[in-house]
Amino acid sequence: MFGVIDLPTYLAGLVLIVLLPGPNSLYVLSVAARRGVRAGYTAAAGVWCGDTVLMTLSAAGVASLLQANAVLFGIVKYAGAGYLTWLAIGMMRAAWAMWRTRREKAVEETADTGTHERPFRRAFVVSLLNPKAILFFVAFFVQFVDPGYAYPALSFVVLGAFAQAASFLYLTALIFSGTRLASAFRRRKRLSAGATSAAGALFLGFAVKLSLASS
C-alpha cells in the first residue's frame, strides 16, 4: 500500500514507541493537569506540529545531514538540552514555592505558572529541539518503505499519518487523565508539589540524556 511494507509490524512497533514516556507527552500531561483540557490540546497541537516538521525534514534527508555533520548535530543537541533544563528549573522552582507556602492563592498562582505560559510554543520547541527524533524517524520509517516504490515521499506521508494518529489517541488519553489528576492536586498540595518536582527531575534527566547522545 503506497510503498509501505509489513504494516502490522510497523503498527506494533509504533504503539510501543508512542507509549514510551518522553518530554513531549510529559509536558502535555503537566499542562492538562494545571490548566485543563483546552490548554492540554493546545500543547498537544504544538507536539503534532513539531513532529510533522521533523517527519518532513526526515523525508527530505536532513537527518542524514545531522548524522554526517558532527558540529551541526552538536549545536542542535545542546540547544535542545539547554531548553529542557530551563523547563526543569522552572518546574522545580514552582514545586519549591509550593512546599514553602500553604496559602491557597499563592499555590494556585505558582502551579498555574501565570498567564504568560504559551503551551503551543513550548511544546513545539520541545519537539523540534530533538535531533535524535529526526534520526529515529528515518531509521524507523525507512525499514517499512519499499525501495523499489516510485514515490518514497508518499510512503513517508502514510507512515507519518499513522504515527500522528497514534500520538493523537495517546495524548488525548493523557489530557483527560491530567484533568482528573488536577482535582486531586488541588485537594492535596503536597501531592501537587511532589508531582511537579518529579516532572522537573524527569525533564532534567531528558536534558542529560540528550546532551550525552551521539550522532
Automatic annotation (TrEMBL):
Membrane-topology descriptor: Multi-pass membrane protein
Any Pfam family the entry gives: LysE
Name used for this protein in its record: Leucine efflux protein LeuE
UniProtKB keywords: Cell membrane, Membrane, Transmembrane, Transmembrane helix
Protein family per UniProt: Belongs to the Rht family.
Biological source species: Streptomyces osmaniensis
PANTHER family referenced in this protein's UniProt entry, alphabetically: ARGININE EXPORTER PROTEIN ARGO, LEUCINE EFFLUX PROTEIN
Name of the gene encoding the protein in the UniProt record: leuE
Subcellular location: Cell membrane
Bilayer-spanning residue ranges: 12-33, 45-66, 78-96, 123-145, 151-179, 191-212
Chief localisation class: membrane
